[in-house]
Amino acid sequence: MKVLFLIPYPIEVASTRQRVFQYLPYLIRNGIECTVSPFMSSRFHDFVYQKGAYHKKILHTCYGVGRRFSDILYLPNCDAVFIHREAFPFFSDFIEKMIAARRPIIYDFDDAIYLMNPAKPSLVPSLRRPSKINDIIRISTRIIAGNKFLASYAQKYNQSIKIIPTCIDTDHYRPVNNVEQRRKVVIGWIGTHSTIGYLNEIRSALANVYSKYNVELKIVADEDIDIGIPITFKKWDLNEELTDLQSMDIGIMPLPDNKWTQGKCGYKLLQYMAVGKPVIASPVGANIDIVKEGSNGYFANGTDEWENKLTLLIMDKTKRINFGTRGRSLVEESYSLKVNAPRLLSVIKSV
After folding, report:
1. Nearest residue to 320 via CA among 245, 254, 250, 273
2. pTM for the full predicted model
3. Rounded to whole angstroms, how far apart are CA atoms 101 and 205?
4. Least packed by Cβ within 10 Å: which of 130, 159, 208, 246?
């Protein structure tokens, strides 16, 4: 079976890396011939293709509009098309409709992209039509949603839905014993420019614990932020992501509570947990399903709760270790690539 994967972003972006790229070796081993076509180009092409870990082959050397029209010409060579988020980021769903008329579509989404992201206003709102997602869901043969909230929305337009959470390759993301005893407890956050602003939700709590305890705040992202206290900023790099996560002692995921964030799939939490770290998170979206209060992490709302929960973990190394161990077990049991890859394969074969 031959499947064409249409994705908006290259491997640098977490959503395409976790919801498409990491599945490819498993799919290929199980008889699916995979061809991946990102709308945007990647600086990791040589790394990806020389190692042969993700792509089976490259379809084009062009990108953007030209690439998508080349994809249309390629349709006779494939049996189905897997679209992650959207095939074309602007205007209407005309590309998706052209595809649906020729091949079955498996549509996958892991954010509330039928809304405008309030934390990331579009620079060209006249070119974006988030409501087109409804039409794409309607014309697709199968829908894959990243969590229950997104699945509930999709059910208004299509009943053929499978929930597959964003998952983690637990063979790659793994705990490591820190050989050196650090003087400071490292509170860590990983993400991108589109979510880094959420740290402002807890800047007072972070400032309070920084003034009271011997802690370090480490931020791994594509851009820096000023939250009023000294931070250790590390530029995100695909090849260094694992060691950056392993260098943290506590993983945090603050979120405001709105329709957009309710569609979030809790990927940060899964990363922290996979490397054996305890977490503190806002009780929003998929976070509610991932965090087991007092077992693998804590929920926090408001400055006082965030400060209190951070303090509990800062002061208790044994609790950090126990929470991290339980978090790792949860990822292995419910959110691992090993558990979810067969589910994706089943959806693909069903079309």
Report:
1. 250
2. 0.90
3. 53
4. 159
Q: Name residue 66's amino acid.
A: G
Q: How far is CA 138 from CA 147, 177, 192, 246, 255, in A?
A: 18, 48, 31, 42, 30
Q: Is the Cβ–Cβ distance between 67 and 60 less than 8 Å? A: yes
What residue type is assigned to position 325 of the chain?
Answer: T
| Helical (H) or strand (E) element with 261 | helix 259-262
Rounded Cα distance between 74 and 57, Å, is 14
Residues 6+ apart with CB under 8 A from 210: 217, 229, 230
pLDDT tens digits for range 171-197: 999 999 764 566 799 999 999 998 999
Phi-psi region of 64 (alpha: psi -120 to 50; beta: other; left: phi over 0): left
The dihedral through the CA atoms of 6, 332, 334, 324 has a sign that is: negative
pLDDT tens per residue, range 151-172? 999 999 999 999 999 999 999 9
Q: What residue has token string 């995979």?
A: 34
Strand 105-109 relative to strand 80-84: parallel, antiparallel, unpaired? parallel
* Residue in the structure block whose two tokens are 């990331």: 120
Identify the burial level of 278 via C-beta atoms within 10 angstroms of its C-beta, where 0-12 means exposed, 13-18 middle and 19 or more buried.
buried
- The conformational region for residue 285 under phi > 0 = left, psi -120 to 50 = alpha, else beta, is left
